[in-house]
What we know:
The chain is α/β, with parallel strands linked by helices.
Amino acid sequence: MQTYPHSPLAGQMMDQPLAISSILQFAARHYGATEIVSRPVEPGLQDTLHRYTWRDCERRARRMARALAGRGVAMGERVGTLAWNGYRHLELYYAVSGSGAVLHTINPRLHPEQIAYIVNHAQDRILCFDITFLALVEAIAPHCPEVRAFVLMTDRAHMPDGAAIPNLLCYEDLLDGATGEDAWPVFDENAAAALCYTSGTTGNPKGVLYSHRSTVLHAYASALPNVLNVGALDTVLPVVPMFHVNAWGLPYSAPLTGARLVLPGAALDGKSLYDLFEAEGVTFSAGVPTVWRGLVDYVVERGLRFSTFRRTVIGGAACPPALMDTLIDTLGVQVIHGWGMTEMSPLGTTGGLLARHRTLPAAEQRALLRKQGHAIFGVDMKIVDDVGAELPWDGRTAGHLLVRGPWIAARYFRDEGGDILQDGWFPTGDVATIDADGFMQVTDRSKDVIKSGGEWIGSIDLENIAMAHPAVLQAACIGVSHPKWDERPLLLVQRRPGMALGREELLRFFEGKVARFWMPDDVVFVEALPTGATGKIQKNRLREQFKAHRLPAA
Ligand code: ADP
């Protein structure tokens, strides 16, 4: 931990800790009647919507905080969740952290063995879960001996008979039985509040332990006009799951700004989302590109339009320009390209324009919007070469991207991986350029960069070009070994159903769009591309699968 010099003259303002519970208390008091709408996941309830307000949410979360304390959950102990975006999950966000315990959101799309590993590594004392995950919890419970109780997030009427889970409790019963002091406890703002594991594409997942202070600062910053720009006039539907990096902070920034919240439960297909957007008047949303593709295809193929939806943030993976263009030009939805990572709470940069960009030709404006964007106040960034020397911000030179700031991880939970910082900076594992205006563009992840004859070829650019072809649904570009150039790009393509496209035609499509040495050496058409638990294409699996691929002679 770094220490800083003390001034002989301290400021004389109130010392009020930045507490997560204070966000919900604020919403209950100042936006008390604003609604939270949730799609339940229990069988029989999936066609209904649950409605209540920030005031109701705060009352129940405060009660749940007492219930957890009553169950012996001590400050700093972890409470796991395996749950969709819904009101009970939202209550736990506040009840667990607000009681001084640590909310550990778990990605249910991980392999059960990995989930058991994470539960044990985090030493979760209580595991709360949606009924969707009953069989999963039955399977992992015998391997998680330190979990004292399992809480099914439902009411008594929906509790299953004869579930093979020890110490199974009903969420609503637990809530009803709460006793004790009816106020949020107050404690130091540096206390741990929430724990998220990175998806661990290589090695075991590692935990990132957020504090109350880091979470509240991130919530303030993420709501700013140049960032997500959420406010009391918005109805926000986070498609990004609450089990993936705290749904990019929206469960905190929505109550902080008095936004109305719509939580879609497990129904994330194009039709269900579109119907919910329309029925509830959603104005703002957030999600990864793969989810947007499903929704956008559904809307465009049927000639539908959004009547209230105006803005979305897309991140977690590079937003393909073709997807951005359809959203902006065809559907009239402003796209904010966001970049970040679990270790950054997660927001680091967001796309947008500066005032003087307004007079630029439309194509140049669009090129700027495609970049991952400008740092948010609180995030400091730089690019460096292989030996750590800082590189210029010229929009061309690509280097390793390093960040620092009050909501960026200093180490991993239980010191996995040891000292992870480089001179106080966190290496993101991304390769990027930064232009003179400070706009950052990710060209690749370090481990995905294709190294050809001493030059770096950015796979994201090549994938974006391929995905602009109307017959391409998804594309991934990987390096395969080459006797002369070390590595050369191989493009793996999933065609749109029912559309024809050949290798030569796709390669011709690249002509004039990239330098000659960037041209993919080969194209392979595949049925599907493997995706991981967060919906990202798993290039490590593709590299393994195609490592013996023979590129055609040039
Ligand atoms: P994990 O690191 O476990 O895959 P994260 O969700 O934390 O999970 O992923 C962070 C990484 O995702 C970033 O380091 C970056 O490589 C990638 N990423 C996130 N947003 C973008 C974006 N807008 N453009 C390109 N890559 C992105």
